[in-house]
Amino acid sequence: MKIGELSTCTGVSIRSLRYYEQQGLLTPVRLENGYREYSPFAEEQVRTIQLYLNLGLSTEQIAGFLHCVLKNKESFCEEIVPVYREKLKEIDEQIKLLQSIKSNLEERMQSILEEQSSQEREE
């Protein structure tokens, strides 16, 4: 199948498919005219790539285990657990940062509301 067909059946843009190729996640055959030709298996590859991107993983991380998960279940791929652990640690750090920002915003808002309330009583 051509790149446009793969794009249509997966809902992934042609630009993204070309990016996946640059990152080594997809490997089409090049025809004599330079067109990309994808195997029927490419649709599953793209859907798998999308799944892992939606989990917040980078294409570099995905490249480290994609070949394994396309051939086996995730549970048979030793490479995936450290990536998941790393991602969970990163998410925990982001949550802590966001909680701190939220707390600071709530304090600022409370301070502003108290000051406004105080000014209204004085008037």
Give start-end ranges of low-pLDDT stretches.
none
Order of helices and strands: HHEEHHHH
Distance between the termini: 75 Å
The count of β-strands is 2
CATH architecture designation of the largest domain: Orthogonal Bundle
Strand portion, in percent?
A: under 5%
Largest sheet: 2 strands, antiparallel
**Count of discrete alpha- or pi-helical segments spanning 4 or more residues:** 6
Give the CATH class of the largest domain.
Mainly Alpha
Within the largest sheet, what's the order of strands?
1-2
**What percent of residues adopt helix (DSSP H or I)?**
55-70%
How confident is the prediction overall: mean pLDDT?
93
Number of domains: 2
CATH topology tier name of the largest domain: Multidrug-efflux Transporter Regulator, Chain: A, Domain 2
| Class from secondary-structure proportions | mainly alpha
GO molecular function: DNA binding; DNA-binding transcription factor activity
Coiled coil: 88-122
InterPro entries: DNA-bd_dom_put_sf, MerR-type_HTH_dom, MerR_fam
Domain HTH merR-type: 1-68
